[in-house]
Here is the input.
Amino acid sequence: MKASLVIPVLNEAQILWGNTETIIEYLDETLDDYEIILVENGSSDNTEKIAAQLSSQYAKVRTFSLPEPCLGEALKTGVSNAEYEKIVYYPIDLSVNLDFIQSSVRLLDTNDIVLGSKRLREARDIRPTTRRIASKGYHQAVKLLFKTDLSDTTCVKAYRRDVAITLMSLIPTGSNVFETEVLLEAQRRNYSIAQIPVRVDDQRQGRLPFVHKVASKGQDLASLRIDVFSLSMGVVLFLVGSLWLGYLSLEKLVFNREGFLNPYSFLISMLLILFGAQGITYGLFARLFLQLRHEITVVNSHNSGNVFKEEAK
Here is the structure.
């Protein structure tokens, strides 16, 4: 029962000290040993200063600071600097029940990842209606697009350290759906994932405008499947156009009707074939770009790791 708690913090000056002490009190009672890693990223208030003070006062609190707001980079920083094999990603606002920490640390004995879900039957989601509706729609889209049984990809999580490092090195930190991409990659690699219900109570207003957040996440999610969309649509259009052109030719050659000599019918069939070919081509290029994105991310992550090791020396 030892774990590293990774907590990204952004503009949390008002709650950082008190909530960190609450977490410390809980961990003192439930874990044999632990560390709390606060990763401040781009705060414009006194969050960085308070985090440093916490690190000075509590030996089990460590602090890192990043220049720009970025959840993905904050998680990578926390995971790469964690001392323990078990890592729990938990929010500083205490919006999720604290006992997830103890439960997930136990489950990591037999699982690679533990996923806290607010979508399971026994879970409770006490948030504003708009956020609950948007969350449900997002996770339904994830299930539909990626054929996954993951019920919630944006809540609290626990990882085995080597698994987290491997997975996060494959995903660009700038992605608005970083957490989702990490879990989808884990499922593709057949890592064992346990899902447990959690209670979420978050009444605070989101940092970004609601419409902007929905649009950005939807755009990034769809971009991960743009190759499939394009290839599927391209193939359908190409086949329909080809079949139509074949039918028009058959009309003319067999039944001596106007057939493909009808300029409108011929034009429509050729346009369908042309658009279909373009869709197929675009889909193949999109797949290539996604593969390049993956390779570039891996190389950059490897280089960043080498830089960190050199600085540590």
Remarks:
- Strands lie at 2-9, 33-41, 61-66, 86-89, 113-117, 124-126, 157-160, 193-197, 199-201.
